[in-house]
Specification:
InterPro entries: UreD. This is Urease accessory protein. With 243 residues, the chain is mostly beta strands. The chain has one domain. 5% of the residues lie in helices and 50% in strands. The protein contains one helix and 17 strands. It starts with a strand and ends with a helix.
Length: 243
């Protein structure tokens, strides 16, 4: 299991950061009194058939953690063996978690279950970025079931979704003939009210019943289907909370 944990240091000191490697290797980029930036690097070819990647994230009360993938992930062809990618995160009261993942590519004949579970304390904010790509160049893509479950620490649901994609059997109303689904999730803050500027990469936005929103873009390639501009605004605003 890969573990990333940040906790508040003594007054005036830098955050305490605890890193434990698994199939992914966490590397500390920078840290200050209230902020830590950690990069995730693959320790080898990932995901192969039967691989199980598990990541544990702990953000202490009042702390801000930014996690950034270095390079994307490819789920390689398998002989029917399921690969798993599991994230369990806990964000303490008033904490902030920002996680920008690079494209997750599901090659032909790959079979993947991807699960992201987040438990958040009072006034905590969470921003997650996930880009799913069916197939490498010239491929239709394999199968992936991606589950996102974000709740308060008392179990009250905030955003819960299960998305099933199969490049060999495209479904109308999901991706259809498209290969890329880019998603940005913001939990714990209201989305900005300004109109979408023309020519920007914002995606379509679903405003949640509780403070938060989900932005999505669908297309045939990552450069043509992304929500970069909106993600940048959401995360910049989130990270300023604990400066």
């Amino acid at each position: 299991m890969t573990t990333i944990a940040v906790t508040e240091a003594a007054p005036g000191g830098r955050l305490k950061v605890r890193l434990a490697p698994g199939l992914l290797q966490p590397r500390l980029v920078t840290r200050t009194a209230g902020f830590a930036h950690v990069a995730l690097v693959a320790g080898g070819a990932t995901l192969l058939g039967g691989d199980s990647v598990s990541i544990r994230v702990e953000v202490g009360a009042g702390c801000t953690l930014r996690i950034e993938d270095i390079g994307g992930t490819v789920a390689y062809p398998s002989t029917g063996r399921l690969s798993e990618w599991t994230v369990d995160a806990v964000v303490g009261d008033g904490g902030v978690l920002v996680w920008e993942s690079f494209p997750f590519v599901v090659a032909d004949r790959a079979h993947v279950r991807r699960r992201t579970t987040v438990r958040r304390g009072a006034d905590a904010q969470v921003c997650l970025r996930e880009t799913l790509v069916l197939g490498r160049t010239g491929e239709a893509g394999g199968r992936i079931v991606s589950t996102t479950d974000i709740r308060d620490v008392d179990g009250t649901p905030f955003f819960v979704e299960e998305l099933s994609l199969d490049g060999g059997h495209p479904q109308p109303g999901v991706l259809g003939q498209s290969r890329v689904l880019d998603t940005a999730i913001m939990i714990g803050a209201e989305p900005e009210a300004e109109a979408t500027p023309t020519g920007t990469h914002e995606g379509h936005v679903l405003v949640l019943a509780r403070p938060g929103a989900v932005a999505r873009a669908i297309g045939s390639a990552t450069h043509a289907a992304h929500v970069d501009d909106r993600w940048r605004r959401w995360t910049n605003r989130a990270e300023r909370r604990t400066e």
